[in-house]
Design goal:
- The protein is α+β, with helices and mostly antiparallel strands.
- 25% of the residues lie in helices and 43% in strands.
- The chain has helices at residues 4-21, 24-29, 48-60; strands at residues 31-38, 44-46, 67-79, 82-92, 106-117, 120-130, 135-137, 145-147.
- The protein has a 6-stranded mixed sheet with strand order 2-1-6-5-4-3. A two-stranded antiparallel ribbon has the order 7-8.
- β3 (67-79) and β4 form a beta hairpin.
- The chain is globular and about 45 Å long.
Length: 149
Amino acid sequence: MTNPNEVIEDTVKALNDAWNAKKPKSFASVFTEDAIFTNVLGDVAEGRKAIEEMHVYPFQNPLKDAFLEYSIQHIKWIHDDAAIVDFRWVSYNQKVPNTEQVLPQRNGLLNMVVILNGNKGEIKAGYNTDYTATYQRNGDQEDDIITKG
């Protein structure tokens, strides 16, 4: 029998690896088909395909050269097959959209509900928070993000 905490750790590692590889489809594959995800800007994607589409632009532009490090802060089992997971992250080498200006290190927390499906974990819900408040919206388009200063 597989240790459930190890399944959670493998799920979080797969998510982080896909983020660092800048592969939206691989990133989204860690989520359930009907998952919900809120990014650091407060944008919400419902469903695996929408989560994939949400990550295409950032992985091709401001995050294309960025690197994410993580640590699992807490795993709280709420059912035999479901846990709340706090995933603390640090991002390096992110750029201001459509420029070569590198931003300072960013720090955040991704809160997730992870469901066990046999020996596999899938994210049912995720809410991402950026503690550094690097960005703010200047309108309603993907490329209208400005740095706070």
